[in-house]
Amino acid sequence: MKLQESGENYLETILILKNRLGYVRAIDVATELNFSKPSVSRALGILKNDGYITVEQSGNICLTDDGMKKASSVYDRHVTITHYLSEVLGVTPSVAEADACRIEHIISEETFLKIKAAYNNR
Prior knowledge:
The protein is about 70% helix and about 5% strand. It is mainly alpha-helical. It has 2 domains: about 5-70, Winged helix-like DNA-binding domain superfamily/Winged helix DNA-binding domain (Arc Repressor Mutant, subunit A), CATH 1.10.10; about 70-120, Diphtheria Toxin Repressor, domain 2 (Orthogonal Bundle). The protein has a two-stranded antiparallel ribbon with strand order 1-2.
């Protein structure tokens, strides 16, 4: 199943919060994204039904193997594109960050791999 951009953003956010806090709850996601708790609950329900996350009895959100794979991929794209835009092309860091957040969802695998190779081989 093709994950929508919003789903990719949620997975990436869960990964980032897990790395930062050691755990993730729905309220943490809502706070990080500045979304309402009902909106986050609905999105998490969809991600759970699609097999990307599980929610423990305690309320902690865990990425499944598929969720971790997708979240890591999106995060890698985000970081790589941000660095490429700012460090190689000289784009202002805040603009590079904002642009990377949009580009990461639509860029082809071929183009991303070329950007990653160019960034890593500079």
